[in-house]
Amino acid sequence: MKNIIVCMKQVLDPEIPLSLFQIDSQLKLAIPPKAMPPVLSPFDENALEAALRIKDTQEARVIVISLGKKSIKTVVSSALAAGADQLVLLQDESFGEFNAYLTANAIAAAIKKLGQYDLILCGLQAADTNNGQVGTGIASILGVPCIAAARKIELEGNKIRVERASTDGYEVIETPAPSVVTTTYEVGALREPGVEAFMSAAKKPVTTLNAADLKIETADTSCFIMTQMDKPAHESKCEILGGADPAEKAVNLVAKLQEIKVI
């Protein structure tokens, strides 16, 4: 049986309009609107779908790992309803402000604790930070190959075959298992589970691990310091251009655009 690990992050809904966020300049934080439930990062949902498609064709076990200060059970458990076999929650007070390295290190420690694995799947990037560093970080820490931006993944024996889009078509890459692969939206949307799937998800195993269980350091090793965060000022200026008729208005418009060096 193949063991596939999928890393999934709980994030704020990326569809929330930016205008609803408030900026706290003192705390250097963007404060989201209240009563907006989080979701699973869409790229991570693509990674789970890739894992489930492999499971459709062969005997495989899909384990989802999610890290955060606090996870909403109904959100992360939706991965079990979609078809994952086990959920591992990495939860600790220190995980709230983790950077990419600390996140990758914690997930890598959890993967080592789980034991044998054949494939690790991650989304290309998280929908909240857009960093795209955790997948490659996990591969580096575990010392395994990594292929980024895959649109199709196949697991055959001890080989992983990946299709990745290029500027003039696509390329096919083979790598030995185990490896890390990050996925794009081209993999396809996550399947919609039915009511029975959500009921059966409650019977699937959920394991919770904290920093002490993982035996990891949680000290911040950020390479940058946030010095200032402010809401950008948007100024609008409207000027009405007159003219006796449409032709003259057009001439005046062109003259104005040339004056301000737009054309």
Shape: globular
Q: What is the distance, rounded to the nearest whole angstrom, between the alpha carbons of the first and last residues?
A: 63 Å
The CATH homologous superfamily of the largest domain is termed HUPs
Runs with pLDDT <50, length 5+?
none
**Main sheet, how many strands, which sense, barrel?**
7 strands, parallel
DSSP E strands, number: 14
Per the CATH scheme, the topology name of the largest domain is: Rossmann fold
CATH architecture of the largest domain: 3-Layer(aba) Sandwich
**Could you say how many structural domains there are in total?**
2
Helix content: 25-40%
Beta-strand residue percentage: 25-35%
* Rg from alpha-carbon coordinates: 23 Å
Mean of the pLDDT scores? Answer: 89
Spatial order of the strands in the main sheet? 9-13-8-1-6-7-14
